[in-house]
């Protein structure tokens, strides 16, 4: 009961947009720790100082909350990646000649991911769980995978098979990230990527 009163006071002060941001951040941490199937709406509500009905007022349902978390993280990562590469977020994946190369994009992605292990773990857990057709993020990850492959393939110069190169890049990056997540204290993700990329892009 001692923690409930501050939560109620905080609830009254937060604007809707800030409250939504808080909900997404709390949910992100919980899913990264437990996976979607281990996520309790009560725990999310407690972490935000809300009742479950109050939480549902903001997100609608547990499935909606999951998709909102994924979309929020993808948008944040896109803005960060574009900023690091010095290009507009809406112009990062464009048709025709690009201001950035595939090796530059991949190196920036790895640097970004190396600085946010909790987010990488979140996506790794959910991507594995969502292989089940009845998972609420199954379609989200299917579409996301196709979008990523197409975006990376567009950066592959001719005459190489862009789709094949993109598939190899994603497989390599995902595999290295899994090794890093298992042994973060001894596995240097950025160094491992640099060594692998030198061979892949040679």
Protein described:
This protein has helices at about 5-15, 15-35, 40-50, 50-60, 60-85, 100-115, 115-130, 140-155, 160-180, 190-200. With about 200 residues, the protein is an all-alpha fold. The chain starts with a helix and ends with a helix. Mean pLDDT is about 85; it is low at about 1-10.
What's the SSE blueprint?
Layout: H1 4-13, H2 16-34, H3 41-48, H4 52-59, H5 62-85, H6 102-114, H7 117-129, H8 138-153, H9 162-182, H10 189-200
GO molecular function, one term: transcription cis-regulatory region binding
DNA-binding region: 40-59
Pfam families: TetR_C_6, TetR_N
Can you give me a brief rundown of this structure?
The chain is mainly α and 202 residues long. It is 71% helix and 0% strand.
Low-confidence stretches: 1-11
Query: Main beta sheet, described?
Result: none
The averaged pLDDT comes out at 87
Backbone structural class: mainly alpha
Rg result: 19 Å
Number of domains: 2
The amount of helix comes to: over 70%
Identify the overall geometry: elongated
Oligomer: single chain
Instruction: State the order of secondary-structure elements, H for helix, E for strand.
Output: HHHHHHHHHH
Terminal residue distance = 62 Å
How many distinct helices? 10
Strand content: under 5%
Number of strands: 0
Protein name: TetR/AcrR family transcriptional regulator
Keywords: DNA-binding, Repressor, Transcription, Transcription regulation
Organism: Actinoplanes aureus
InterPro entries: BetI_C, Homeodomain-like_sf, HTH-type_TetR-like_transc_reg, HTH_TetR, Tet_transcr_reg_TetR-rel_C_sf
